[in-house]
Automatic annotation (TrEMBL):
GO biological process, one term: fructose 6-phosphate metabolic process
Alphabetic keyword roster: Allosteric enzyme, ATP-binding, Glycolysis, Kinase, Magnesium, Metal-binding, Nucleotide-binding, Transferase
Highest classification ranks of the organism: Eukaryota, Viridiplantae, Streptophyta, Embryophyta, Tracheophyta
InterPro entries on file: ATP_PFK (IPR022953), PFKA (IPR050929), Phosphofructokinase_dom (IPR000023), PKF_sf (IPR035966), PyroP-dep_PFK_TP0108 (IPR012004)
Name of this chain's protein: Phosphofructokinase domain-containing protein
Length: 529
């Protein structure tokens, strides 16, 4: 603005309009562009969830110059023709109309990998999340939406629910919002809950979830029948990898029937085991709360001779919480995670290391993820083959088992009395309110989901990729689990902090476990930015 002028004028920038019904035509103008299925082969795949089987259509892959590849998400116009588009009501909203470049541009994509060499191709990208200037709904007030949450509490669930309800109401004028109680079976077996901004106003201050949780009950035909009968046109599904697989099956059945319904997933896993995204909501809160248990274990162990504080933390297949809580605490002498095998007896084993630390300090703290050492327990119990309602193998209590092993070893073989305190804060951590960081994160996830659904994208999960929120196809979220890569620097930092050995023996081949193509973990990238 000219400093000599006596008055100021506000210029609202114009934006490139994105007609969602023509988004495929846009890509056809890219140089050297051609739709290509992932892996270079055509055909389709199938997915099985709780006895339901459905065929997954080919991924929408678009290629460009210099090795550019867009792993795109589905759009209702892919199977419903002549969808009308309308101006986004946000352009008339005083809170948003003055924001420069608030609307996401048509060619905005987010790179999956940002650390590349000089000659590397541009690599895989995802469609950037955010509001579009054009939406595919003439009267948003008639929209109705549903939520489904599957199994397990996690800090921040109520915040996500609140922000979706309030975001739909205040940003797009959606007044018909329904909540589904009790997981997937709630679609056809339980009543719905009308959700309004007044109803959800203070639920972010409560722990747990107002919609309840459950396992099992996924009947694709009944679920989609319920969606169709109720006239639902947007479905928001909150849950982990198993729930996202269920959401993918629902999306495919909706597409097969040709319904005008957008299906959007919001990733929820306290273990941080969902791939592609930087981290899942609730993870920061879990690490913060885990430190309280570690601190208590440290106080107990150093207050008595030969004291050992043993803390078991969440992490069925991924040891992120244990690793980050260990690094943040600095009181931990040994961290055991599922990705890094260990053994108990013999040179370089856990018992030898415990004896060494007790001789040096007369106390120590051990952190173990719940999925660590399960291969050692399998030979000691006949219940390892038990599975839960979702088909997941039920884990044994490694904390209790290893506590007994430590006591027995030192009392019988070394005639040393061990004072061991075992702390399992799992349910205490799951049942706390989300911290400030997770509350903000939940808001961004909710808004990204809303904007994508209103633009009539479907069959995707939202989440940050290298710090930028993106729309990620369901198949990328469900194809694998995110795990700690024990050949990365972050695990090396953890070992350096505890001064523990790697516990690898000649009988255990050293294999690189986890996501090799990313190098360092996404959470580490965020931590060092």
């Amino acid at each position: 603005m000219d400093s000599t002028s006596s008055s100021a004028s506000l210029i609202i920038p114009s934006f490139r309009c994105f007609d969602a019904t023509n988004h495929r035509r846009y890509y056809s103008t890219l140089p050297s562009c051609s739709p290509t299925p992932r892996g270079g082969a055509g055909g389709s795949a199938s997915i099985h969830v709780m006895g339901n089987s459905t065929t997954i259509a080919d991924p929408k892959i678009v290629t460009g110059d210099c090795g550019y590849l867009l792993d795109d998400v589905a759009h209702l116009s892919d199977y419903i023709k002549d969808l009308p588009t309308y101006s986004n009501p946000l352009q008339d909203n005083p809170a948003y109309s003055v924001v420069k470049q608030y609307f996401v541009d048509v060619d905005d994509t987010v790179a999956e990998k940002i650390v590349v060499s000089k000659e590397s191709p541009r690599g895989t990208h995802f469609r950037r999340a955010g509001p579009r200037q054009k939406v595919c709904k003439s009267n948003p007030c008639l929209s109705s939406c549903m939520y489904c949450n599957m199994w397990g509490l996690c800090p921040g669930i109520n915040t996500v629910i609140r922000e979706i309800v309030c975001g739909l109401y205040h940003m797009y004028g959606v007044t018909g919002v329904l909540g589904i109680e009790g997981g997937y079976k709630g679609f056809y077996a339980r009543n719905t809950i009308p959700l309004t901004p007044k109803v959800v106003n203070d639920i972010h201050k409560r722990v747990g979830t107002i919609l309840g949780t459950s396992r099992g009950g996924h009947d694709t035909s009944k679920i989609v029948d319920s969606i169709q009968d109720r006239g639902i046109n947007q479905v928001y599904i909150i849950g982990g990898d198993g729930t996202q697989k269920g959401a993918s099956v629902i999306f495919e059945e909706i597409r097969r029937r040709g319904l005008k319904v957008a299906v959007v997933g919001i990733p929820k896993t306290i273990d941080n085991d969902i791939p592609v995204i930087d981290k899942s909501f609730g993870f920061d809160t879990a690490v913060e709360e885990a430190q309280r248990a570690i601190s208590a274990a440290h106080v107990e162990s150093e207050s008595i001779e030969n004291g050992i504080g043993l803390v078991k933390l969440m992490g069925r297949h991924s040891g992120f919480i244990a690793m980050y809580a260990t690094l943040a605490s600095r009181d931990v002498d040994c961290c055991l995670i599922p990705e890094s095998p260990f053994y108990l007896e013999g040179p370089g084993g856990l018992f030898e290391y415990i004896g060494k630390r007790l001789n040096e300090n007369a106390h120590m703290v051990i952190v173990v993820a719940e999925g660590a050492g399960q291969e050692l327990l399998s030979g000691n119990t006949c219940t390892m083959d038990n599975i839960d309602a979702l088909g997941n193998k039920q884990l044994q209590d490694v904390g209790f088992w290893i506590s007994q092993k430590i006591k027995d070893h030192f009392s019988e073989k070394q005639k040393l009395t061990i004072n061991l305190k075992y702390i399992d804060p799992t349910y205490m951590i799951c049942a706390v309110p989300s911290n400030a960081s997770d509350n903000v994160y939940c808001t961004l996830l909710a808004h990204s989901a809303i904007h994508g659904a209103m633009a009539r994208y479907t069959g995707f999960t939202v989440g940050p990729v290298n710090g930028k929120h993106s729309c990620i196809p369901f198949q990328r979220i469900t194809e694998r689990q995110n795990k700690v890569v024990i050949t990365d620097r972050m695990w090396a930092r953890c070992l350096s902090s505890t001064n523990q050995p790697s516990f690898f023996s000649a009988k255990q081949p050293f294999e690189k476990i986890g996501d090799e193509k990313h190098g360092d973990n996404h959470v580490e990238d965020l931590a060092i930015k």
